[in-house]
Amino acid sequence: xxxxxxxxxxxxxxxxxxxxxxxxxxxxxxxxxxxxxxxxxxxxxxxxxxxxxxxxxxxxxxxxxxxxxxxxxxxxxxxxxxxxxxxxxxxxxxxxxxxxxxxxxxxxxxxxxxxxxxxxxxxxxxxxxxxxxxxxxxxxxxxxxxxxxxxxxxxxxxxxxxxxxxxxxxxxxxxxxxxxxxxxxxxxxxxxxxxxxxxxxxxxxxxxxxxxxxxxxxxxxxxxxxxxxx
Length: 230
What we know:
Layout: E1 3-8, H1 13-24, E2 27-35, H2 43-53, E3 58-62, H3 85-88, H4 100-115, E4 119-121, H5 137-149, H6 152-155, E5 161-163, H7 171-180, H8 205-217
Parallel strand pairs: 1-2, 1-4, 2-3, 4-5
Helix pairs in contact: 1-7, 7-8
């Protein structure tokens, strides 16, 4: 009998690959998507389509991080465009959402307790990413420690494991693994500033990293971009 696992699913390339990896490892995934007031809320519809395509139930939770702000994804701050790779490799960009992954993992932990699952999957990556501090392996390790301290299940002897299977992989590595597992990347959206039709801008950090990944993986990029995108 397969074990339940909670998979954080944004509808992006990374979390979709992680969902496929969890299934390939024999888990029965319950997906969790979070509407947190993000500028690119169209990603939630992509999450629904991905979960449906992979035959996994999806739970949607609403919270409003616009009340906190401080990010180009949750406040009236311009999303950086056309940044060179050298610039993306240094510093923490304004698209960082304060405490987002801490909150998402906390919600996933709560759902895991309710579902009787002790495994949580998250698609953070510490190689081809935008420098977010809550994507690092150190953060995942410490959250796992917290999960086993702060829950009834943990206190009663169950052990939670937070899986971050993309950590250490390049975007090209991730795409190759997803293709091997049969992921349909045309369903996914990675853009931080898509148009109302859900077309990617092609210029934000996330679009650039995604496109670079497909090129290096030797896989055709199925992304639909706005007209005039580079």
